[in-house]
Amino acid sequence: MGCARLPTSTRIRQRYGVTAAPSSSDPGREALLSWLKQRLNTDLPLAPALLWHYTDARGLMGILEHEELWATQTNFLNDSTELAHGIDLATRAMAGYDASHVKEVTARFLGGLVDPEMAALASWLDRNLDVYVACFCSDGDLLSQWRAYAGRDDAGGYAIGMGTRPPLQGWPQTAPGGHGFALRRVLYDAKEQEAACRDLVETLVPILDEEPTDVERQKSFARSLIDGVVELASWCKHPAFEEEREWRIVYVRNNDSSKLPVRQREFRGLIVPYVALQLPSPVGRMLGHMPVQALNYGPSSEPDLKRRGLENLRANYAHLDGVPIHGSSAPLRL
Fold this sequence. Notes:
It is a single chain. The chain has helices spanning 9-16, 27-43, 57-66, 84-95, 104-113, 118-128, 143-148, 170-173, 190-210, 215-235, 303-314, and strands at 50-55, 69-73, 131-137, 158-163, 181-185, 246-252, 263-267, 270-277, 292-297, 325-327. It is of the alpha+beta class. A 6-stranded antiparallel sheet has the order 5-6-3-2-8-7. A hairpin with a 2-residue loop joins strand 7 (263-267) and strand 8. It is elongated and about 70 Å long. The termini are far apart.
């Protein structure tokens, strides 16, 4: 029996099996992975040799000592529209889809996605999704980042340069524990965001249209659509943040059968949830360690002491021997 409308938020999980693991022959999942592969093939040629993770002195010492990065829950990031922006983009892509060439049942189903009840789905995603990100920047000497991570007592921040070679996708996928980490390039350009949303919809709709009255196919389509929307929401940001040129590791805790434990840290008076990510290099001299290939320190009132402290810290770790240290060229007065 065909379904023309998505159910209300209280029935979405049960009806469409959002958290259920798809079968190996799940057509929606296969189409979604094809869409993600195309996205990754677009990103890889654009990846810089180094991605930079900005932090303060305490964060730097913790990262090097424990060999882990902290991924913050998206609700606590500096973009107040995190997730909501991508969900809105996907909703508009569905509304703009030309359903004149699909079967009538499919058209009714798609129409249900963009009627006012779609707000219930967006609200459900906002309340229930548990998404964490660790952020990187393409620029290792960015003034706005130094300001954000100035640290206590105006000491200034640090930037850790992580190598993206060998192949970019090998970094998070070789992480221990089998957790589903994904490294993604953040999109800021409205046209590029719209194209990614449109491609998702155009990739998935034929899966539904093949047998639109089949309930299992409806579930497969809905699961994959929701997973795709979560992907989009995780790496589509408002154009105002374009200067950051961000890449990020995304961890959707809902989809992990062996969920990473949630920890809390204090940040500017807030209690911020995070998860710890272990991301060792899969090959080479950094095998078993995070691929740290450079260390930068930001503007400081005492740059000589800052460099000396960083050199002493580097000496504690044999695998960091020879890793270059550079100071910021930004004329920021702290």
